[in-house]
Amino acid sequence: MTPDGVATQKINFSILLFVSLLCGLIFDQDDVIAPETERNSEIQSCFPDMCNLLKEFGAMRDKLGVMENKLKDSENQILELKNKDTTKVILTAAVGSKGAMGPFNTDTTLIYRAVKTNIGNTYSPYTGIFTAPVAGVYYFTIFYHAGGSHQAKLYLYKNNEMMVRAQDHWSVFDTADNGGNAVFLQLQQGDQVYVRMAANSHVWGYDYDTTFSGFLVTQM
Amino acid sequence: MTPDGVATQKINFSILLFVSLLCGLIFDQDDVIAPETERNSEIQSCFPDMCNLLKEFGAMRDKLGVMENKLKDSENQILELKNKDTTKVILTAAVGSKGAMGPFNTDTTLIYRAVKTNIGNTYSPYTGIFTAPVAGVYYFTIFYHAGGSHQAKLYLYKNNEMMVRAQDHWSVFDTADNGGNAVFLQLQQGDQVYVRMAANSHVWGYDYDTTFSGFLVTQM
Amino acid sequence: MTPDGVATQKINFSILLFVSLLCGLIFDQDDVIAPETERNSEIQSCFPDMCNLLKEFGAMRDKLGVMENKLKDSENQILELKNKDTTKVILTAAVGSKGAMGPFNTDTTLIYRAVKTNIGNTYSPYTGIFTAPVAGVYYFTIFYHAGGSHQAKLYLYKNNEMMVRAQDHWSVFDTADNGGNAVFLQLQQGDQVYVRMAANSHVWGYDYDTTFSGFLVTQM
């Protein structure tokens, strides 16, 4: 072999030694820096950093993966929280007629035409019907004012079932009266709530006296 | 050239070859590990890891940047959620006088002096005025008890506009009566709500009978 | 020394020089790429990337640590938000007797047996007692219907303290009457709220007329 060939071989051998040393440091299971040798003392300040680098890089990549999943999970939870209880349902309407409403010779749905608040547009002032847009617990309260010449008799219905009632007897001696009631009702989406006025009863109608109010307390 | 010079040149050349090989591996667009050569077989276990390292490092840095932005966005959304609906406004007060309040020969603001709850300090028991601290929808309800010798007539006002009313006629025969009403009102910050007692009407005053209550249902 | 020995020494020296150069680049406080030398021009395309790599790697590791803490903090805040205001308390019950309840010759707790809603199971239809499961502000409202032959007189109590009252006088001439009241109360966990019916008074009992309702407005 020529001197050149020997020199090249020697380079290869040195690089191989160097690489073996480097790989030995990388795959060394202990975190202890490899013992210093005469050759290592020259390369220790730099290549051991690179060996640890490879180790640490793997660990960092794993940690980044874990954090990415946790971040995604947090983003989903934030979205859930933002969407929770965002439906607003709040209404007040008064009967709005000019004077007495009724008496009629049959039960009728009392239509509160003078809307004061109708957030969520869940109440129709044309039919007097409230329709639940989402499942949840709702609060309803009715108040009436009525002259004494006829009975006042209001029923609050959920679908086909009476829930609460507000009524008074007529009296020659008591020329006006008031009454009311309130109820919390668990409703499904689409359930309807409305007020029926009994046959032969009446209420006082203007924009301020006989009212129907409600709101969505909580979705569930 | 001397043998030393030739050897040095050979070292440079070998390092250059080695570096070219390394750079070739780094900038190789395919993710396929470069074909094994006799020289590579010695260095493959270590330097290809480092070449991929450079590639992956760039990718990881980009990913970290993306995650940093997403994390910042999440932090902002959490702050929004924490600040949402944190204003609490809840009040109940009773008239608190010893016996009848009124009748007066003019309309007056009914001052409910006996405060039972005033979360948010939005109601003044000195003036009887509630002031909305934030825009939103509020619920108000009034109840009165009154002796029969005079009419009872209460109006709930928002600023200069009557919203609902509770009233009864006087009657020799009915020595006491009750009434009330409720309303949900959308208010702007600074809007004022209060109860006016009509001239020549009265209510019963103690700490328990004639009340004014309200709360902020939702900010909007 | 033999030519081989000299060559090996020259390799070591070259590697040492190379390493020193590399470490010099790494620990160079400026971000300026080290001036090009004849040797550098061969290695610049690759190893300077690796030197910057070590610098950047340290910075990235620090950044990852900061982000990990921020992510943990966000996760805790999300958990707080999810747990906030999750207690639901909503109730309505009617007296439910068939006809008049009372009069009795002593004050009694009015037991509303016909439960319509009892979210949170905080109201007992056996005792008529509501018990606050958490500290907060609660809303209560009562309505009664009563015949005119006896007085109607209801007191709403918090523990041993009357909060509001609803009453009417009896009247031969007024054969029925209505009344009610409402109050927002700040309660501690375990506080009890209930309705007392005064001695010698009565209310009308069915499932629809005389009611007791309440809900938790906000925990605090």
Which key terms come to mind for this protein?
homotrimer; 220 residues; alpha+beta; Jelly Rolls; 30% helix; 33% strand
Strand order of the largest sheet of chain A: 4-1-12-6-9
Q: State the major sheet of chain A.
A: 5 strands, antiparallel
Please indicate the count of domains of chain A.
2
CATH architecture of the largest domain in chain A: Sandwich
Tell the overall outline of chain A. Answer: rod-shaped
CATH class of the largest domain in chain A: Mainly Beta
User: Largest interface by residue count?
Assistant: A-B, 53 and 57 residues
The overall strand count of chain A is 12
CATH topology of the largest domain in chain A: Jelly Rolls
Structural overview:
3 copies of one chain form a homotrimer. Chain A folds into 2 domains: 3-86; 90-219, Sandwich (Jelly Rolls), CATH 2.60.120.40. The first copy, chain A, is 30% helix and 33% strand. The first copy, chain A, has 3 helices and 12 strands, in the order H-H-H-E-E-E-E-E-E-E-E-E-E-E-E. Chain A has helices at 3-26, 38-43, 47-83; strands at 90-94, 100-101, 108-109, 114-119, 130-131, 136-147, 152-158, 161-168, 176-187, 192-197, 203-204, 211-219. In chain A, a hairpin with a 2-residue loop joins strand 7 and strand 8. At the A-B interface, helix 1, helix 3, strand 1, strand 4 and strand 6 of A face helix 1, helix 2, helix 3, strand 6 and strand 8 of B.
